[in-house]
Amino acid sequence: MIKEYVRLLKARNWMKKNQPFLYSWHAYVGFELDLFSQFRKWRTVKDVASSKNLQEELLLRWVEVGLAIRHLKKKGEDKIKTASKFSLPSTPKNPRSTGIILKEMMELHIPTLLSYPELLRSNKRNTFDHEEHGPTVARTSSLLEQLALPRLLKMIRKNKIKRIIDIGCGEGGYLTRISVKFPNADLTGIEINEEVAESARNNCRDYKNINIINSNVHDYMPENKADLIMVNNLLHYIEPQDRKQLLFRLKSWLSRNGSITIITPILHSKKGEAFSSVFNSFFSAFENLYPTPAEEDIIHMAKELNLKIKTYKPVVTEGGWYFIQLSSK
Ligand SMILES: C[S@@+](CC[C@H](N)C(=O)[O-])C[C@H]1O[C@@H](n2cnc3c(N)ncnc32)[C@H](O)[C@@H]1O
């Protein structure tokens, strides 16, 4: 009897633990199909289903969940409206919508983590499709910009930095934000993904001091020395045994008192261990993505490169993300 009760309690506990998934799933579907915008004004399910050419019955199911978790509200018999607009993702037409993080989690992270049993049994790894996921990943990592930027700006100001190279610049978010504060700095972004580089060029077109180059960092060579080289959210694209070599090359591009800054999740960080370890599980599921470094790896690399770790500070503590500044001694 007690055994049966414990069994029930355990099952209930797992159900409850999984409840937050409901909110993310609902918000993801709403974002992907732009449904929260459709229901910005009071509308019926029938009306939205026919104007967006969607299955009415499934849309109704989605609406019912939305009403239960208060993402949506109801008036009269059948009029529905988006309830908590502030906390829900804005339209996918907005390149800065936070829905992009839901898209990455639901389309990339969760399916990959769910493939673990199959991967473990088969001894195989997935292949990360840079072309397909590049634009989403570049956009989600830009969410960190706001948090990391104050540290970067302070450093640029303090060290009177003039020439900056951003390796794996994504859509150019760091460069445009730096350009606003330092319109006379000379800024270069290196981006391997053609589509992402094109978006970066587009985003940077009004900033005359930014130059975007569509190239693999391994094939690139700057014309002039740089005072700052940024390596933001890039290390997991580089094999651990190649990182030292890459940083060694980057060091040779630095001016006399130049710095390299790295933003990366740190494995086994004091805080954010759960998040950084699951992030690492995600990377490791792909043959062409690589584990994040641990603090010891950074210390070891800096020592071998004869660089000093000037700053080692968390950017997102609960996520184990760090901002690291390496400078010539
Ligand atoms: C996770 S995103 C980070 C973007 C941006 N640095 C940020 O922190 O928001 C990494 C970017 O590096 C680019 N990348 C990966 N390997 C590269 C390489 N070998 N050379 C240049 N860019 C690369 C990817 O295409 C991607 O846009």
UniProtKB/TrEMBL annotation:
Q: Does the record's keyword annotation contain Transferase?
A: yes
Instruction: Tell me which Gene Ontology terms the entry assigns under biological process.
Output: methylation
- List keywords of the entry alphabetically: Methyltransferase, Transferase
The reply to whether Transport figures as a keyword in the UniProt entry is no
| Methyltransferase domain sequence ranges | 164-258
Q: Which parts of the chain are coiled coil? A: none
The cross-references to Pfam families, in alphabetical order and at most eight, read: Methyltransf_25
**UniProt superkingdom:** Bacteria
- Organism, by scientific name, is Cytobacillus oceanisediminis
The protein depicted here goes by the name: Methyltransferase family protein
Return the Gene3D superfamilies for the record. Answer: Vaccinia Virus protein VP39
**Which GO terms label this protein's molecular function in UniProt?**
methyltransferase activity
